[in-house]
Amino acid sequence: MTWPQTRQGFRAWMMLERSLSGNTVDGYLNDLDKLIAYLEPAGVLPARVTREHLENFLIQLGELGIGARSQARLISAIRTFYRYLLLEDLVAEDPTALIDGPRLPRKLPDTLSQADIEKLLGAVDLSTAEGIRNRAILETLYGCGLRVSELTELRISQCFLDLGFVRVTGKGDKERLVPLGGAAIRRIRDYLQFTRVHVPIKPGEEDLVFLNRRGSRLSRVMIFNIVKETAALAGIRKSISPHTFRHSFATHLVEGGADLRAVQEMLGHESITTTEIYTHLDRKYLRETIERFHPRGQ
Asked: Which residues have a catalytic role annotated?
């Protein structure tokens, strides 16, 4: 089969069989397109690709200045592509089987301290309608560890405030239940009862929790701006984003002794390996505590 044929089949497989989100599918296809652009002009069909072809491709990426993380992502996309071809009996062997990805440094995410969180939340002006909404947004980000897309798509029908849970639709349209803290519940209720009821809601947006002043869903950029502007008001100088609240949520749970499996479930991580980064963060915190407070720590 040709590259266009296998690419089209790969796209359908990811969407229908794997139920991956549109953004994830596009990301895999964009990475695959780089391999296609390298091999198709040479007349190499998908079933004829060898380990040597892939190694030369990776060498070229390195010469072009493509970083280790981007290379690792490309290899992951190509491996997934050949997994699909094997399942469909379109190839006899997987040329990616013996390909080693670049070693990546384990980067610890930026977080806010609990004091910084309190300072940031306290900087929201609750005398305005937008302030009441923004405080509810920030409390939800920190209180649930939601991704930005999960927050903007959160629906009233998914909020069980009396029970203290929200049902979240995450990556790959997978649903999970996430507990809400008391502070988040109170702020969401305040917003729904005293602010949102006065917004002229556009058709089709009636079930969304968070809306702009025109009654439409909030964009990711809008959430990012709310976080940036509130941080500036609070005098927090470090560069933060909505995802910082997610990292802070997980970090503070782990530092408090939460079970890693529970944190994994709340974050919606498919693999606990992803969640384990917060144990590394916790060890860093413990090391800093020793160095700062123990008489023999220096």
From this structure: 147, 171, 243, 246, 269, 278
